[in-house]
């Protein structure tokens, strides 16, 4: 088990990165998001800014909310390979979907967003809410389809 004092596998011990996180629904992602990310890079002396696209803010109405995959793909269009995007497999799919649905969703999401790197495949829920078979399908699909992008 990794400890807090050990670096990530493959990362030199003396590597230190300053990473900013920008989270939101990105409905839609636009140049304003890009602008504040670039300003944060300069003003906060960051090495990277990662965009974390949320499935749905529970405090906001879902009316007019584009599907998550559409919002993630649009965010990736805005930033290209210059920033990292974190995209979620919806919690409802991991909790109540089938392994086949998870596999197809991950395949489509990676094909749309991870073709030039800079993408973090993630879940949209705490893992204790996920069906174990669907979570396994999530991991397996990430390995299967992520290797080609």
Give the tally of structural domains.
Answer: 1
Give the C-alpha Rg: 16 Å
| Percent helix | 40-55%
Beta-strand content estimate:
15-25%
Characterize the structure shown.
With 149 residues, the chain is an alpha/beta fold. It is built from five helices and four strands; from the N terminus they run βαβαβααβα. It has a four-stranded parallel β-sheet with strand order 1-2-3-4. Helix 2 (68-79) links the parallel strand 2 and strand 3 (84-89). Helix 2 runs parallel beside helix 4 (99-113) and helix 4 (99-113) runs parallel beside helix 5. 25% of the residues are buried.
List keywords for this structure.
single chain; 149 residues; 4-stranded parallel sheet; 4 strands
Q: What's the arrangement of secondary structure elements?
A:
Blueprint: E1 19-24, H1 31-43, E2 48-53, H2 68-79, E3 84-89, H3 91-96, H4 99-113, E4 119-123, H5 132-146
Parallel strand pairs: 1-2, 2-3, 3-4
Helix pairs in contact: 2-4, 4-5
In short:
This protein has 149 residues and is of the alpha/beta class. The chain has helices spanning 31-43, 68-79, 91-96, 99-113, 132-146; strands at residues 19-24, 48-53, 84-89, 119-123.
């Amino acid at each position: 088990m990794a400890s807090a004092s050990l670096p990530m596998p493959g990362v030199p011990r003396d590597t230190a990165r300053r990473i900013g996180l920008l989270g939101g629904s990105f409905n839609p992602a636009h140049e304003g998001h890009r602008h504040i990310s670039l300003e944060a890079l300069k003003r906060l002396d960051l090495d990277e800014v990662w965009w974390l696209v949320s499935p749905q803010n529970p405090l906001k109405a879902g009316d007019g909310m584009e599907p998550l995959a559409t919002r993630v793909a649009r965010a990736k269009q805005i930033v290209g390979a210059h920033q990292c995007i974190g995209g979620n497999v919806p919690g409802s799919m991991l909790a109540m979907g089938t392994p086949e649905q998870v596999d197809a969703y991950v395949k489509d999401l990676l094909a749309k967003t991870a073709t030039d790197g800079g993408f973090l495949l993630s879940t949209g829920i705490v893992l204790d809410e996920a069906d174990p078979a669907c979570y396994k399908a999530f991991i397996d699909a990430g390995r299967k389809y992520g290797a080609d992008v």
